[in-house]
Design a protein that fits this description.
Chain B: The chain crosses the membrane at residues 23-44, 51-69, 75-96, 103-120, 126-150, 162-185. Chain B: Keywords: Hydrolase, Membrane, Protease, Transmembrane, Transmembrane helix. Chain B: GO terms for molecular function: peptidase activity. The complex is a heterodimer of chains A (313) and B (653). Chain A has helices at 6-20, 25-36, 51-61, 77-81, 115-127, 162-165, 179-188, 192-196, 204-217, 222-237, 247-263, 271-282, 297-307, and strands spanning 41-44, 66-70, 82-87, 92-97, 104-108, 129-132, 135-138, 144-149, 170-172, 241-243, 287-288. By secondary structure, chain A is α/β, with parallel strands linked by helices. Chain A folds into 2 domains: 6-202, Rossmann fold (3-Layer(aba) Sandwich), CATH 3.40.50; 218-307, Helicase, Ruva Protein, domain 3. In chain A, a hairpin with a 2-residue loop joins strand 6 and strand 7. The longest helix of chain A has 17 residues, at 247-263. Chain A is globular, with a radius of gyration of 20 Å. Chain B folds into 4 domains: 2-187, no CATH class; 224-481, no CATH class; 488-527, no CATH class; 555-652, no CATH class. In chain B, the strands form 6 sheets. A 7-stranded antiparallel β-sheet of chain B has the order 7-15-22-21-18-4-10, with helices on one face. In chain B, helix 1 packs antiparallel against helix 6 (124-149), helix 3 runs antiparallel to helix 4 and helix 11 crosses helix 12. The two termini of chain B are 58 Å apart. The chains are: A alpha/beta (313), B alpha+beta (653). The A-B interface holds A 23, 25-26, 172-173, 175-176, 178, 219, 221-224, 266, 268-272, 275-276, 279, 302, 305-310, 312-313 and B 556, 559-560, 562-563, 580-587, 605-606, 608-611, 643-644, 647-648, 650-653.
Chain lengths: 313, 653
């Protein structure tokens, strides 16, 4: 049995990873998961590894509107949401939409924006609407924010607080390409120009329908729900963890696991889907105890995952 | 440096010898020969490193011995063939190679043989052998665990000393525990808690003397006196005879042993056979149905007045069979004067009453007159608010007019004796509840009763129950006789009865006969009787419920078994003891790259993770996959089975 649109979605991933974004299959896949699960993705990596290319390529191939915000410390909330401008001829204020009114928004170096701006943007992400001067404007569907931040830079940044991090469905890095591939990329030159001419393979409506299909038809049984619950429960009692996974974290994990199961070609979620997706979905939500600040959250969570038995009967 | 292997062999031989020692006098020569042969063959084999008796041969010989055992054994002759079989098996094991498995069998056989020897002999030596056996076997088992890990393990002398010291702690601890469990506990007849909280000794029930007026109130105890397995009897026949009291001293009726013969005139139409299960009691009188003819299964002494003294252990349950005739009469042979004996202090009104009765012409008329007096006095049967006086009989008859059976019986008998009618008291029990389910009468201590036996004009003793002359006799005695018991209570009591009969008393004969009667019933099912189905119907839900429960549990567990089988196969393929718990089925399938594993995961996961049941067809297919995987001799790279680490790897891609 072939699931609705799965072939096309896999083709998108295949095309992107083989033609345009070599060696980034995992990041692409996670971006698709997050698009299908209705969440947002935070890419944490140093500049120059293709975060922007990823966003551009996705918007191109999925035929989505693309908006871009380059964060700086003087960026104002209205620079993202848009603002009202006075129209002299009609002698009235006219709302000029900001870059957030696009299907796919790339928020570059999100940790450079000041907290006020960050918070305005993240709120819009969560609520999927913007209220300016008393008027509420809905954001277009599908809506995916790809935010990036550079973990190495510390001067002049405002690191996202944990409560804001919790709003991202997925946090992941991109990583360096393997040496062979990197050599090829160097040899061939940037693909940025090709990305402009990329042919769309899927439409907006199809994406909306697919994510609705996943939400309604991919079943998450009792065993897997138990498994997810055990996972978040144990994260709360872990000796290295100060504050474990929230209920929203559990919800996000379930939604992402559904999308993952769909990509795997199943209409039911298995514990392996949860395992597969858990680290990018959940690790950034953990708050470690002060004495374990130097430990990587991913590793803590990885060890937790390895402890919990998979339910089988 | 001494190797573990050598020590283990020595321990095994020693344990075998200790097991056999108490049996030696009972074994036939040829079995002894076999055992010696086994020792010699084994020892030589140990030396040379190869054994004359190969494993297959040993199995064959063991089977042959077993067939011999089956041909010899019968219910009558079970113990000897069984012990000989055990010795033969031991001989075979001694002669074969000493692999860990065989060593374990040797220890086990030695222990069983020692246990079996208790069927033939149980003297003090047994305790000694038991202690030795425990020491040797526990030490052997620990050594065996070393041996299994590394057969060539060797220890230096100080290491041995240290090891032995620690090893001896183990059996020493278990010996103390055993002492409590096996020496102290079986010797106690009552549960240990009762021993710590001793019960009050004064109890209600039948006693070997009757003294009306000694207590002001009779409390009800609710304790069980005895149970009687028999057919259902006429209600008037339910007088359970215990003791005959023939001598009156002051106010107290006692039993005086005299050799006065009585002859029972039997009426075989009323003969019944009963089996009585008596609860522990303080006196030695065996209760029977009035009147007993013969008694069996217990050492006893029967008197001609129908009183039976058993030679019993104190505070032990006892069961015996009784043949009794409830309508028979007994004729007094010889003098009757001592049945007329009375003390010589009586008040005037007593003597006047006795005088009046004595004027009647014969025994029957005198008894009739006395009955009329009792009825006329409007006496009431009561166990509470009894007057305590110097002269309870007189107070009862003329003043308070309240009392229980002892008052009625003793005043009746006194007056009869004063009027010249030979009379005596009989103590025992009255009535009982018939348990339809178990087919037995349950008689409580509350049913204890005293009645009168008086002589009639033909010289026969006749039973007279003066308590029936009370104005409220119907109600008062009815409660004793056949209180309506609910079915549930009857069922619970029947269970209890059978438990103490079959299990606590541990009556082998009874158990065998139970099996026989069951087999008989199964055979008789062939003669199909539709009416019997109705009887069975009520038991059906009782059986069905647990059966369904077990069925569903089994169904649930079979999936768990399936998964653990599957994981076992995969773990073997990866040369691991156990797969990591966090490794799911689909992850396993991906890692193994085996299509069968993928099919298993999809088939199983589609059902279980979808929240639906695995169908029978799917279950069979899953089993088939496991079978095929076993045949496949799959091998999986262990390094790959680090399940979630590859997340890291693919991150970098």
């Amino acid at each position: 049995m072939e699931l609705y649109q799965r072939k096309q979605i896999l083709e998108v991933i295949e095309t992107l990873s083989s033609k345009y974004l070599q060696g980034k299959v995992r990041a692409i896949r996670l971006a698709i998961v997050s698009l299908l699960a209705g969440g947002h993705i935070l890419l944490e990596d140093i500049p120059g590894l293709g975060k922007t290319s990823l966003a551009l390529a996705l918007s191109g191939i999925l035929d989505l509107d693309f908006g871009r915000v380059q964060c700086t410390s003087d960026l104002l909330p209205s620079d993202i949401t848009g603002l009202s401008v006075f129209d002299r001829q009609k002698s009235e204020f006219k709302f000029v939409k900001g870059p957030i009114f696009n299907n796919l928004v790339l928020v570059d170096e999100v940790n450079r924006a000041m907290p006020k701006t960050q918070s305005a943007m993240l709120e819009a992400m969560e609520e999927r609407r913007v209220t300016v001067e008393g008027v509420t404007y809905g954001l277009p569907e599908p809506f995916l924010v790809i935010a990036t931040q550079n973990p190495a830079e510390q001067v002049g940044t405002f690191p996202l607080p944990e409560s804001q991090l919790d709003r991202f469905l997925i946090t992941t890095g991109i990583g360096y390409p393997p040496p062979e591939l990197e050599k090829q990329i160097i040899q061939r030159g940037s693909v940025r120009d090709e990305l402009e001419t990329i042919k769309p393979l899927l439409g907006r409506d199809k994406i909306i329908e697919t994510s609705r299909f996943i939400r309604d038809n991919v079943k998450l049984g009792d065993l897997v729900a138990d498994y997810i619950h055990t996972l978040i429960e144990r994260s709360r009692n872990h000796p290295q963890v100060f504050s474990g996974i929230s209920t929203r974290g559990g919800l996000s994990l379930a939604a992402a696991a559904r999308a993952e199961a769909y990509l795997e070609g199943r209409d039911y979620v298995v514990p392996e889907d949860v395992q597969q997706i858990a680290v990018p979905v959940v690790a950034h939500r953990l708050i470690l105890r002060p004495e374990f600040q130097t430990v990587r959250k991913e590793e803590v969570f990885q060890s937790l995952l390895a402890e919990i038995p998979v339910p089988m009967a | 440096m001494v190797g573990v292997e050598a020590i283990l062999r020595i321990l095994a031989y020693l344990a075998s010898v200790v097991g056999l020692l108490p049996l030696l006098p009972y074994l036939p020569v040829w079995v002894l020969g076999l055992l010696v042969g086994g020792f010699v063959l084994g020892w030589v084999g140990d030396r040379r490193g190869n054994y004359l008796l190969s494993n297959h041969l040993a199995t064959g010989v063991s089977i042959a011995f077993f067939i011999w055992f089956v041909s010899q054994a019968s219910i009558a002759n079970l113990v000897h063939p069984l012990i000989e079989l055990l010795c033969q098996l031991l001989a075979v094991r001694l002669a074969t190679e000493k692999s860990p498995r065989h060593l374990l069998q040797l220890f086990l056989l030695a222990t069983i043989i020692l246990a079996a020897s208790s069927m033939l002999t149980l003297d003090l030596g047994y305790l000694f052998y038991l202690v030795l056996n425990i020491l040797l076997v526990t030490t052997g088992l620990v050594m065996l665990s070393f041996y299994v890990t590394d057969p060539h393990l060797r220890f230096t002398r100080p290491q041995w000393r240290l090891l032995l010291k620690t090893l001896l702690l183990l059996p020493a601890g278990s010996l103390v525990l055993m002492l409590v469990l096996f020496v102290v506990l079986p010797r106690t007849q009552t549960p240990l808690w009762n021993f710590l909280n001793p019960q009050p000794t004064g109890r209600i029930g039948m006693s070997d003397q009757v003294q009306p007026g000694s207590v002001a109130e009779l409390a009800e105890s609710g304790e069980i006196a005895f149970r009687v397995e028999t057919e259902q009897l006429p209600i008037d026949a339910l007088y359970w005879r215990g003791i005959v009291l023939n001598r009156l001293e002051g106010n107290i009726w006692r039993r005086e042993l005299r050799n006065i013969e009585e002859k029972l005139v039997s009426k075989s139409s009323s003969q019944v056979e009963l089996t009585i299960y008596s609860e522990p009691k303080a006196d030695h009188y065996l209760v029977t149905l009035d009147r007993p003819i013969r008694i069996a299964d217990v050492r006893h002494e029967i008197k001609s007045d129908g009183v039976i003294r058993g030679r019993l252990r104190r505070d032990g349950k006892v069961s015996y069979r009784v043949w009794a005739q409830y309508n028979s009469k007994s004729r007094q042979l010889g003098d009757t004067w001592h049945y007329l004996q009375v003390p010589n202090r009586f008040s005037d009104r007593m003597l006047q009453l006795a005088e009046e009765i004595a004027q009647q012409k014969n025994y029957a008329a005198k008894i009739d007159r006395l009955d009329r007096f009792f009825l006329q006095q409007q006496l009431s049967y009561s166990t509470t608010k009894l007057a305590k006086t110097e002269n309870p009989v007189e107070t009862f008859l003329f003043d308070s007019r309240r009392g229980y059976c002892e008052y009625f019986a003793s005043s009746y008998a006194v007056l009869l004796r004063l009027a010249g009618v030979p009379a005596r008291l009989v103590g025992g029990y009255l009535g009982g509840e018939f348990n339809q389910l178990g087919g037995y009468y349950l008689v409580g201590e509350d049913a204890a009763h005293v009645w009168v036996e008086a002589m009639d004009d033909d010289g026969f003793w006749q039973r007279i129950d003066p308590s029936r002359l009370a104005v409220n006799a119907e109600e008062a005695l009815a409660t004793n006789r056949s209180g309506n018991v609910s079915t549930l209570q009857a069922f619970a009591d029947a269970l209890k009865h059978n438990w103490s009969r079959m299990v606590l008393n541990y009556d082998l004969r009874q158990q065998i006969s139970a099996v026989r009667s069951f087999v008989g019933q199964v055979r008789s099912v062939k003669k199909f009787d539709p009416a019997s189905l109705g009887k069975l119907a009520w038991g059906l839900p009782l059986l069905l419920l647990p059966a369904t429960w077990f069925f569903f549990r089994y169904r649930q567990q079979r999936l768990q078994r399936l998964i653990s089988d599957y994981r076992h196969v995969i773990a073997q393929a990866a040369a691991l003891d156990k797969l990591p718990d966090s490794l799911g089925l689909f992850a396993l399938a991906d890692l193994s790259g085996e299509p069968l594993c993928r099919e298993f995961a999809q088939l199983y996961g589609a059902a279980v993770y979808n929240g639906r049941r695995v169908t029978e067809a799917e279950y069979q297919r899953l089993k088939e996959i496991i079978r095929q995987l076993k045949k496949l001799q799959l091998s999986i790279d262990v390094a790959k089975l680090c399940p979630l680490g590859n997340n890291e790897a693919s991150r970098i891609l």
